[in-house]
Amino acid sequence: MKTPVRVAVTGAAGQIGYAILFRIANGDLLGKDQPVILHLLDLPVAQKALNGVIMELKDCAFPLLAGVVPSDDPNVAFKDIDIAILIGSRPRGPGMERRDLLAANAEIFKVQGKALNDFAKRTVKVLVVGNPANTNAYIAMKSAPDLPKSAFTAMLRLDHNRAVSMLAEKAGVEVADIEKVAVWGNHSPTMYADYRFAAVGGESLAAKINDETWYRETYLSAVGKRGAAIIEARGLSSAASAANAAIDHVRDWVLGTNGKWVSMGIPSDGSYGVPEDVMFGVPVVCEGGVYKRVEGLPVDEFSKGRIQHTLNELLEEREAVASLLS
Ligand code: NAD
Ligand code: LMR
């Protein structure tokens, strides 16, 4: 039997929490032979509901669930953890943009970044889901100076999965056969879902679709505004697909992508004209528990404009939280 891995989930009593915990306990995150101990953080006011979720987890009798540590204190919840999935924060409602949540949510990630810095394992892997995810991940990273910057990532995987799914539908091909899609930048409508390198069985997907007008005028905004479309339809923001994307992100980071590209928000190293430390969506491959940016891709004029546009928004968000971090 392997040693259990400690996985912290914040906002555990919320709707994404309800969709993700049972899948983690079932082995979908780290494999069917890997026991887990769930560290569940939520606000004091949510502890009763959290207790109900824990009762349900127990009622599943998951063979891989080796323990549950509930808490309303990040210093307790993050003690000795290997993985942190930071979901807990306010979601947006109809008519809001994700950056409107900065005022409500930024402080949470400062406090939690510090708690990770002080209590998590030095090898911890952190995924920020709570919106605005890129800038919250940036805040957490800046609040944890003793941890490597590479420990902090933001979730672009939901955008990546949406981007692949919509391309598959348009081209009439299987999702699993599509390679080399990249989503650049911010998890917001400014993101750039880039299909220039996408291929199916070695054939260019752009050539197969052969409809650049559809790509530029319909597809890009459909991917970018999918979150708002779901809020409009459900009255609530995406939950099961967000939980699924978080599982995909962490599983691929830990277990590897076998050379396949996925999109992750990671701290910039200055490449592609993105200033260092900006938490920016890029294509990566993962191997041996490490993500590696796909380097040296050509950037044409259209892509340059799109990358700059989403970068500008992230720079504005960075400016908006500068006083919080000073
Ligand atoms: P929700 O309101 O259902 O649940 C949020 C939970 O977080 C609640 O239980 C709340 O008590 C808890 N919480 C609030 N502040 C907390 C804190 N300081 N510490 C711990 N827990 C805290 O919301 P949800 O639908 O689960 O969404 C959560 C977040 O995820 C929102 O910000 C949402 O916008 C975001 N989201 C991101 C993506 C993405 O792709 N990055 C996708 C979907 C949702
Ligand atoms: C999403 O993309 O579905 C989430 O970020 C929720 C939202 O506010 O759109």
UniProtKB/TrEMBL annotation:
Aminoacyl-tRNA synthetase listed as a keyword: no
Q: Which InterPro entries has this protein been placed in?
A: L-lactate/malate_DH, Lactate/malate_DH_C, Lactate/malate_DH_N, Lactate_DH/Glyco_Ohase_4_C, Malate_DH_type2, NAD(P)-bd_dom_sf
Read off the Gene3D superfamilies from this record.
Answer: Lactate dehydrogenase/glycoside hydrolase, family 4, C-terminal, NAD(P)-binding Rossmann-like Domain
**Would the keyword Oxidoreductase be found if you checked this record's keyword annotation?**
yes
Tell me which stretches of the chain form a coiled coil.
none
Major enzyme class: oxidoreductase
- Residues annotated for substrate binding in this entry: 92, 98, 131, 162
As its record notes, the protein acts as a catalyst of: (S)-malate + NAD(+) = oxaloacetate + NADH + H(+)
EC number(s): the record gives 1.1.1.37
Task: Give the similarity note.
Answer: Belongs to the LDH/MDH superfamily. MDH type 2 family.
Its recorded name reads Malate dehydrogenase
